[in-house]
Amino acid sequence: MPATARLSSRRPTLGRPGAGRPTREQSEQRHLELLDLALELFLERGFELVTIEAIAAAVGMTKRTVYGLYEDKKAIFKATVQRAIERWIVPVETLRAVESDNLEATLRAVARIRFANATSPAGLRLHRIINAESYRFPEIHRLAYEQGQRPTIEYLEDLLRRHHRAGAIRITKPEIAAPAFLGMVTGGPIRGAVLGSATLEPEEIEERIRYSVRLFLDGARRR
Questions:
Q1: In Å, what is the CA distance from 111 to each residue of 62, 70, 142, 148, 184?
Q2: Exposure of 22 by Cβ count < 10 A (0-12 exposed, 13-18 middle, 19+ buried)?
Q3: Measured on CA atoms in the order 31, 37, 43, 44, is the torsion positive or negative?
Q4: Which of 22, 25, 109, 139 has its CB 3.0 to 4.6 Å from that of 98, i.e. a possible disulfide?
Q5: What is the pTM of this model?
Q6: C-alpha–C-alpha distance, residues 196 and 125, integer Å
Q7: Tens digit of each residue's pLDDT (9 = 90 or more) over 41-70
Q8: Domains of the chain in sequence order
Q9: Number of Cβ within a 10 Å radius of residue 213
Q10: Which residues contact 122 (CB under 8 A, 6 or more apart)?
Q11: By percentage, how much of the chain surpasses pLDDT 90?
């Protein structure tokens, strides 16, 4: 199937402005549609082969309208990645909402949330565009870390620090333990999902999460 046909089949069913001046909400919807469809083009063709003309055609805008929003293709690309990051972020409040006095249960719940988020369509698109274009735009990797992964790591640091102070575990360097834990429970399977080389069934994901959490806590328990 041609790329344009694939893009058309995925195009969001947003209402087009009718006659007259579009409302602010309609303009914002069209802007978001522009970013979403531009991301699909960058994923399918790569940054070099995508043109402003192709982006404008995919979203049904004129080149003049697109240039009125962004000065060049690089600016559009960076905005598409920022949009993808915002759709991928897990708010820290979501992690706090699953916290309980049981550290093992909390870590399992956090791991499930992170795993589901990273392997969602939005998460996979973000990881794939970063893998494909971070050599050209190294800042997008930093943006994804600062806005997405770092808040989760800081939450885990605080969680581990509190349980250490309560005497439940012995972790003197939570700033090292937190990213290590995140890598244990999500690293390998997510890389496989992004590359399309491996997918896990729900029961396999749960088994991996339980095993990784117990392994982590076995190394953290006081002796």
A1: 44, 38, 22, 14, 10
A2: middle
A3: negative
A4: 109
A5: 0.81
A6: 12
A7: 999 999 999 999 999 999 999 999 999 999
A8: 3-85 (1.10.357.10), 89-220 (1.10.357.10)
A9: 22
A10: 84, 87, 88
A11: 65
